[in-house]
Amino acid sequence: MSSIAFIGLGNMGAPMALNLVKAGHALTVFDLSPNAVRQLTDAGARAAGSAADAVKGADIVITMLPASKHVEGVYLEQDLLGQIGAGTLVIDCSTIAPDSARKVAQAAQARGLEMIDAPVSGGTGGAAAGTLTFIVGGPQAALERARPVLEKMGKNIFHAGDAGAGQVAKICNNMLLGILMAGTAEALALGVANGLDPKVLSDIVAKSSGRNWATELYNPWPGVMEHAPASKGYAGGFGVDLMLKDLGLAAESALSSRSAIPLGELARNLYSLHSNGGSGGLDFSSIVNLYASERD
């Protein structure tokens, strides 16, 4: 089994790391949150006092960080790449700007390190169940080396292309996710405002042409799906501010490629309004409350 350093134990990183421990890997973890680290050490991982300490002797380094600035900060500004032994495989599972992924990958290559960007889809439920989808950018050989480890955390692994391609594909996916969640929430709010039961309407949509991932697995209306964040006060899950970040990345990519994304920009504005209203820390499906507040 590989010796793995895992840095970043948030809502997604912690369950991903737990699955690696359960698979028998020797895991060393680091996070700024002592509680997050304790969850992993209770499961059998070793705690490191810093990111540099975590990567000592590691065969594979995995990071799951919030944004581009954190990834560049750790690998480049704090020079974590300089602390990683030559020949080590580096896997960044964060969702960041493609240019940032390429920048870090080039710096890794210059130090004799293999690196892939491998952002994930599937939410916290998929992270806990080990059924995530990994969307990989980087050399095919590095992906094949990473595959046995990724398979302990995910069910589907796609090779999107060269460094940064995984991020492009993930950004496209999350832009569509933001659009469809906002649309699903709008439709449910309209139905409820006109006297429909949200569960009945959701069942109808789920068996009709409007069905989508939200209506099938992640309904935004409280009480419709017992295990969805909407039925748990919108706690956990994928935060509004994280969705807003990803929609911002989509906007940046659209500008650089001169692409039109009118629905993506509309979704970004809606999530910005929702975040500015104090809901940035809630699950992104709470966007339904934006429509409810407009109705009240």
**How many strands, what sense, and barrel or not for the largest sheet?**
6 strands, parallel
Strand content: 5-15%
Could you give the order of strands across the largest sheet?
A: 3-2-1-4-5-6
**Alpha-carbon Rg, integer:** 20 Å
Mean pLDDT: 95
Q: What is the class of the largest domain in the CATH system? A: Alpha Beta
Shape: globular
Low-confidence stretches: none
Question: How does CATH name the architecture of the largest domain?
Answer: 3-Layer(aba) Sandwich
| CA(first)-CA(last) distance | 57 Å
**DSSP helix fraction:** 40-55%
Number of helices: 13
Structural class: alpha/beta
- CATH evolutionary superfamily of the largest domain: NAD(P)-binding Rossmann-like Domain
Total of domains: 2
CATH fold field value of the largest domain: Rossmann fold
InterPro entries: 3-OH-isobutyrate_DH-rel_CS, 6-PGluconate_DH-like_C_sf, 6PGD_dom2, 6PGDH_NADP-bd, HIBADH, HIBADH-like_NADP-bd, HIBADH-related, NAD(P)-bd_dom_sf
Family: Belongs to the HIBADH-related family.
Domain 3-hydroxyisobutyrate dehydrogenase-like NAD-binding: 164-291
GO biological process, one term: L-valine catabolic process
